[in-house]
Amino acid sequence: MRPIVMPPNRLDHFYLGGSRITDLRGVPATSERSPEEWLASTVTRFGEERIGLSTLPDGSLLRDAVESDPDAWLGAEHQEAFSRSTGLLVKLLDAGQRLPVHLHPDRAFSRRHLDCDYGKTEAWYVVEADPGAVCYLGFHDEPSPSQLAEWVETQNTEAILGAMHQVEMGPGDGVLVPAGLAHATGEGIFVVEAQEPTDLSILLDWSGLPIDGQLEGHLDLGFPVALQMVDRSAWSAGELEERLVRRAGEPNRADELQAVLPAASDPFFRVHLARPTNAVEVGAGFAVAIVLDGAGDLDTDAGSVPVSRGDVLAVPFATGSWQVPAGVTAIVCRPGTDGPGKAA
């Protein structure tokens, strides 16, 4: 069973962006607000039945293929930890404006309030960034529960952003965003985003965007419940940098897969860069690969698959081990080490 080159899966959204996805994937934008592509996705947008799901080249849903043949797609060991879920959602995200400040629930909150085994810890690998582009990450001054609730109620965006860290981002940087941490990518940042397989977001600000956060910003729980999930703790700049950021080239080897995220990401997902001078082997297991540059033949035991810049591949467990060829730069995303049955 060979890796499958996936058709495009662009999504319209409430914020601007998407030109860099068009450039990489060669897929026309559906609107000026098409800043996301969901890659090899078996997950729908929150509240939707179909939007978000990826199709295979024959038009069938990847979700259905995985559910009908989990041994081939996932393998027995994966199913012990994740059941028939891939355990992973991967996106391309190209922000044409600052995203709203938001956060995501953890697994315990999701089980308690949403009847879902997964939260939404996520991470970003920066593919491209404008000079001086920043993300907003965590609070440097701890707001009280009443203060935060007032900011959200009155949409005091200035106060929310003023209490947060601005972290400058550049190509090759990686950022872990734990569940509960307030965050927003700034304008001009193009990322590969790996996350737990849900679409669960709690909005703190939505000023100037075509969305009513009072209706859509709290996962249908109401803000008194949803805001209980916010990490209000004060983070120092050094703590953020040490625990949540991995800068480009730390370390940088061309003869093996290079981790691009902090080690604390591993329970949730594993994201590596392949930029080999010789072929680099990837072990058996479900994976999503994005070819960022170059062209060549991806070798597997089942035969080779020609790939080139912009291709997205869904790699089944039954592929066995496979090789990223020399001259091809790719991001390889795989599920984490801990399924939702473990405390992570």
Please describe the structure with a list of short key phrases separated by commas or semicolons.
344 residues, alpha+beta, Jelly Rolls, 7-stranded antiparallel β-sheet, 6-stranded antiparallel β-sheet, 22 strands, globular
Could you characterize what this model shows?
There is one protein chain. The chain is an alpha+beta fold and 344 residues long. It has a domain at 9-56 and 87-246: Jelly Rolls, CATH 2.60.120. Helix content is 19%, strand content 28%. It is built from 10 helices and 22 strands. A 7-stranded antiparallel beta sheet has the order 2-3-4-11-6-9-13. It has a 6-stranded antiparallel beta sheet with strand order 1-20-17-22-15-14, with no helix packed on it. Strand 18 (295-300) and strand 19 (303-308) form a beta hairpin. The radius of gyration is 19 Å and the shape is globular. The two termini are 32 Å apart. The model has no long low-confidence stretch (mean pLDDT 95).
Give the secondary structure arrangement, pairings included.
Layout: E1 4-5, E2 10-11, H1 19-25, E3 36-39, H2 62-68, H3 70-73, H4 76-82, E4 89-94, E5 102-103, H5 107-114, E6 122-129, E7 134-139, H6 145-154, H7 157-162, E8 164-168, E9 174-177, E10 183-185, E11 189-195, E12 202-203, H8 213-216, H9 223-226, H10 237-244, E13 245-246, E14 258-259, E15 269-274, E16 280-282, E17 287-293, E18 295-300, E19 303-308, E20 312-315, E21 322-324, E22 329-335
Antiparallel strand pairs: 1-20, 2-3, 3-4, 4-11, 5-12, 6-9, 6-11, 7-8, 7-10, 9-13, 14-15, 15-22, 16-21, 17-20, 17-22, 18-19, 18-21
